[in-house]
Each structure stands twice: as C-alpha cells, then as structure tokens.
Write a structure and sequence with these properties.
Strand order of the largest sheet: 1-2-3-4-5-6-8-7
Strand content: 25-35%
Distance between the termini: 23 Å
Radius of gyration: 15 Å
Helix content: 25-40%
Number of helices: 5
Structural class: alpha+beta
Length: 180
C-alpha cells in the first residue's frame, strides 16, 4: 500500500493486466477531458496500450479500492515510441551513457478525482524501480512546457530539463531526464 496523501487515502500500485484496457482508456479519456488544453498530454491509442500491456513495455496502475485511479507507461529504449528514438540517443549521450542504458517514462495519467494525493510520484517510483532492475541508468520523459504541474512534480522526483523539441505533430515538448 502507498500512503498517497494527507487525507489518509491508500492506494496500491501494480502492473496492469491486459484485461484492464478499457479502464486505462477511460482514465485517459477523463484526464484528457479535464485538461484546459488538449495539447498538454499526448494520449495513447488503444493499439499502443495493447502493445504495452502485451509486453512491449510496462503499464503500472495505482488503485484505490480496486479501482484504477492512474497509470504510467514505461518502456526501455529503443523499444519506446519511434518518435522518441533520436531524442533517446541524444539524452543518453548527454548523460554519458549509451542508448540502451535509457528508460522512457512514456505517460503518467492520474484521474482528476484522484489528483493531489501523490499518485504520480508513487507510479513513477515503481517505474524507476523497474527501470533500475532492467539496467537503465537514465530516465527520460517529455512534457508540454505549459504543463507546469507535471514539470514541478517531475522536478521533485529529480528530473531536469534537457532541451525542448517539437514532437507529436509539431507540439512543443520539454525533454526531461534524470540519473537513476
């Protein structure tokens, strides 16, 4: 159990099963619908989520009383999103490593009803544990520069801005990275 906040709410964090695809899509839909600007988060298609759930990555969920409250997606490089491959090599080189030392935090999404309880941090902690156990030495993620809440949360976890790029069809993204 993760003590996820001052309101004594308790969440468990674990890998999601392939049978949870609909729940993941529902949380993603709620997250995207609550954003003031839909460009703040690049969602995953059902097909992408199915690939991650089938072993093309790890989908980590945070649950309250058995209900999915948020999730994060982890992939090792170069199995990550093809749109990030050139970035991954650049980030790994900046940190003195090789691209296969890199873990990619693809997405973290927390349902609006469960925000402010430390779930992003709890999900990321499990993803970082998985990355370290798989040999990753550096983690990277991308965030909209306008998504200041996520940028601050990632900074608290140890991520630092590396550079900005236009990704996902021309959307501005800050590339953040940290040593594990």
């Amino acid at each position: 159990m993760v003590d996820a906040g001052t309101q004594a709410r308790h969440f468990s964090v674990r890998r999601c099963a392939s049978s949870e695809l609909a729940n993941l899509l529902e949380v993603q839909s709620q997250v995207l619908g609550a954003l003031p600007d839909p460009d703040l988060l690049e969602g995953s298609s059902a097909g992408e989520l199915e690939t991650y759930l089938a072993g093309g990555g790890d989908v980590i969920g945070a649950y309250e009383n058995g209900t999915l409250a948020g999730y994060g997606i982890y992939t090792s490089f170069p199995d990550s999103d093809p749109r990030l491959r050139s970035l991954g090599t650049e980030v790994a080189e900046l940190y003195g490593g090789r691209s296969f030392d890199l873990g990619v935090l693809d997405t973290v999404a927390v349902h609006p009803d469960h925000r402010g309880h430390g779930l992003q941090g709890a999900i990321c902690a499990e993803i970082h544990r998985l990355a370290r156990s798989g040999g990753a030495k550096v983690m990277m993620t991308t965030v909209s520069p306008q998504n200041q809440i996520s940028i601050k949360n990632f900074a608290r976890l140890g991520y630092k801005p590396v550079f900005e790029r236009l990704l996902y069809g021309g959307k501005a993204r800050s590339v953040l990275a940290m040593l594990l």
